[in-house]
Amino acid sequence: MENVTHVARGLLGIVVLIGITVLFSSNRRAINWRVVLVGMVLQFLFAGIVIYFRPARAVVEWVGAIFVNLLGFTNEGVKFLFGSLADQEKHGVVFAIGILPSIIFFSAFSSALYYLGILQKIVYLFAWVMARTMKLSGPESLSASANIFLGQTEAPLLIKPYLPGMTRSELLCIMTGGMATIAGAVMIAYISFLGGADPQQQILFATHLITASVISAPAALLVSKIMLPQTESVERDLVIAKDKIGSNLLDAICVGTTDGLKLAVNVGAMLIVFTALVALVNAVFGWVGSPHALAFDGKEFLSYPGLNATIERVTGGTFKTFSLEFVLGVIYAPIAWLIGIDSRDILLSGSLLGTRTVLNEFVAYLQMSQVKAAGTFADPRTVIIMTYALCGFANFVSIGIQVGGIGAIAPNQRETLARLGVKAMIGGSIACFLTACVAGMLV
Fold this sequence. Notes:
Low-confidence stretches: none
Structural class: mainly alpha
Strand order of the largest sheet: 1-2
Shape: globular
Number of strands: 2
Strand content: under 5%
Helix content: over 70%
Order of helices and strands: HHHHHHHHHHHHEEHHHHHHH
Distance between the termini: 15 Å
Number of domains: 2
Largest sheet: 2 strands, antiparallel
Number of helices: 19
């Protein structure tokens, strides 16, 4: 009976989310519902194969184990550089030492795979499946597939020659794909967040994160084609650009290391700033939520009871004060319910969904890892569903990153990219929520 309820909630969530996407469509009459249907089938097919087909799950778990091993290899380099400071048993997890270096190492490793042509072959396989089944253009299918492994500005490099002549629909598809998935370099950090020091937990969450990124690709394609249907003729051939990263393998590793360092420093800087801003906003909200009284000559003549006591009572102790997390939780609670979150966890989950959109997914995953470690979630399924729901770059900062990054490759498209930014962010969020619905039905 419980499984039937999960399936019903998931189907309702999918219908509502697709309905919301239709509301944002710029040309509802031109929507190709075959693309939507095939995209949803591919989501269930990819997820079902991983979850229920043991050989496929074994392969994904093997890939997840490689990610976990890469964490171990990173630690060797960290120990060499930082010595005893890298000992988590003595000092706990020092974020700058224990997490950020994994981004640098995986970026270098990805560049090596790219130079050797291995990554392109894997990307081509996924792109071939989606291009043939969804009947989309070759370049947008390649970019969506590349986003499974690469970041939102690196993936478009695979289709660099096509970018200047792409239609608005194709550009939105590329942007939405970037928003709906995460790069391997940050995925490895999230594995560390959610899995902690337990290798089995690390492999478990690596498997879910990889699956989430894979099934988000067709989700992003179907959402973008609802929001901005393709009406012009497009390039159907699947041809990956031949550009190499670096002049040789060692140079590629050096380039990847430098890019990873920039990303790690950027992530660290954003966490410092956003964490401080959240603290600042919560300090203001905390003052608003606290009781106050004005007195004159020893007599109280105006009192304000505050909101904190009411919020704690209404939320059953989930939130004890008026805070940014509470506000975001209330706003995003309906979405949390739609994707299958237990009613006891919808406010807390809604807060994490809001944090991902307003700030970024790095902050949201970090907060979720803390909630998970504290055992605050009432339903164990919540962590899994939220792992899928947060697995994307859909936030306001990413709009600027995409306009700047993709615009540098195709300067003539910069104005169009800027106009499509908010739409891509909304589409990326909806795609992540669709994958969470699928996960909630199958897990």
